[in-house]
Design goal:
By secondary structure, this protein is an alpha+beta fold. It has a domain at 260-293 and 295-317 and 331-351. It is 28% helix and 15% strand. It has a 4-stranded mixed β-sheet, with helices on one face. The protein has a 4-stranded antiparallel β-sheet with strand order 10-13-12-11, with no helix packed on it. The chain has a 3-stranded antiparallel β-sheet with strand order 5-4-7, covered by helices on one side. Helix 6 crosses helix 7. The N and C termini lie far apart (50 Å). The relative contact order is 0.17.
Length: 404
């Protein structure tokens, strides 16, 4: 491919993602781990246990923080039908859990009740719909390999596997895929540069392929060569489809050559450890066996953390007896095994293209001066703020409605 192996320009001169995709939101902060679980049944059981308790017992189970107690008065989350009376009086049914991306490639379930979440970032909930995608910029970890940017259709929590705060960047500023979250003038600049109309999804595909980490944040090279751009966009579309697990293309990711991970020995009720046997491409889940598991899947890391190990830890960590966190499945559910098989496929496909992706980080690229000359930079302050919502009502504390 022309351009990718040429000498790179200045790394520090490549524009920051923060300049090109200017509206970003800090990570969510749940404040209490029991509001998230790998399965919705667990959340309903925890809700029932909490609402059956009264007084001091309910407060202890709730785990109050400075931001939330059972007496906090809080508005409803946008798009969610949950109570806004003080939780100390709550006796109603459990709200329908929603999917969230707790970490890279780890979709879990959340109780979408604003009274239970310390910092829920309502501005993200206002733009979360079937047309939205969230680019999640990973917190910088010196020397760590893996992608600097991931994409998810689920509302992301926004922290890296190592716990470092990243930034959440919605692709669109308004519901319905309206108003791309891009620097004004960027898409016309790219369209002129590459000789065809570039839209927001093409931009995101390039960014997934080419974004590289730096202490200042993700940097995004913008190559002069249209062929390099087209090749990177094609790769980025493939990466996005795998990361979204085929949700937008309608085709689930599959390993090449007809390979497919299978359960060779059933996962036990309470697997104690996760071990990879490289010679046989076997993933040992306690006494359970899954294979074939390509080495690329086992070695795939984000922010220096092995994704498969963290996924397993989120489902097997010990909880304090008597706490809401301790309420969970009595045995390893079958659906977790199915999710594990899908995750192995996703990580193997991404890992197999890591070297190809990493090559785009060194392409010769437009620098800030060229973008300033084109009027793309500097970014106006209004582009860094969420879009206003003037045709929308949301329920405030204690049932009061508010206009935004």
């Amino acid at each position: 491919m022309r351009g990718v192996t040429e000498a790179p320009g200045s790394i520090d001169d490549a524009p920051l993602l923060d300049e090109l995709m200017p509206w970003s939101v800090a990570p969510l902060r749940f404040g209490r781990s029991w509001v998230v679980a790998p399965d919705p049944r667990t959340l309903r059981a925890r809700w029932d246990r909490l609402t059956a308790a009264e007084g001091a017992e309910r407060e202890a189970l709730f785990r109050p923080s400075r931001a939330r107690t059972p007496s906090s008065a809080v508005a409803a989350l946008p798009g969610q039908r949950t109570g806004t009376g003080r939780f100390a009086r709550e006796a109603g049914p459990c709200p329908a859990p929603v999917r969230v991306a707790l970490g890279p490639f780890d979709e879990q379930w959340l109780l979408p009740d604003h009274r239970l979440i310390d910092t829920a970032r309502p501005e993200l909930w206002r733009v979360a719909d079937d047309s939205q995608l969230f680019a999640v910029e990973q917190g910088y970890v010196p020397g760590a390999g893996g992608p600097a940017l991931l994409v998810t259709a689920a509302l992301p929590e926004g922290r890296s596997p190592a716990g470092r705060p990243g930034r959440i960047r919605p692709l669109f500023r308004r519901p319905g895929g309206q108003e791309p979250n891009l620097a004004p003038g960027l898409l016309p600049f790219l369209s002129g540069r590459y000789g065809h109309e570039v839209d927001a999804r093409e931009w995101l595909a390039w960014t997934l392929a080419a974004a590289r980490p730096s202490p200042a944040g993700c940097r995004v090279p913008l190559p002069a060569d249209p062929e390099v751009w087209a090749t990177g966009v094609a790769l980025g579309r493939d990466l996005a489809d795998v990361q979204l697990r085929g949700a937008r293309s309608g085709t689930k990711p599959r390993l090449p050559g007809g390979r497919r991970p299978y359960v060779r020995a059933a996962v036990p009720a309470r697997p104690g450890e996760l071990v990879y046997e490289a010679d046989d491409e076997v993933l040992a889940v306690g006494e359970g066996r899954v294979s074939p598991v390509p080495a690329e899947a086992w070695e795939y890391r984000v922010g220096g953390v092995r994704v498969l190990e963290q996924w397993f830890a989120h489902r097997t960590a010990r909880a304090e007896p008597g706490s809401l966190e301790a309420i969970g499945p009595a045995a390893w559910p079958q659906e977790w095994t199915s999710e594990l098989l899908d995750l192995v496929t996703v990580l193997a496909l991404l890992g197999a293209r890591e070297r190809e992706r990493a090559a785009f980080a060194s392409v010769p690229a437009a620098g800030r001066e060229e973008l300033r000359g084109a009027g793309v930079l500097p970014v106006p302050d209004r582009a860094r703020r969420p879009a206003s919502v003037l045709d929308h009502q949301e329920e405030g504390p204690e049932g009061q409605f508010m206009l935004l």
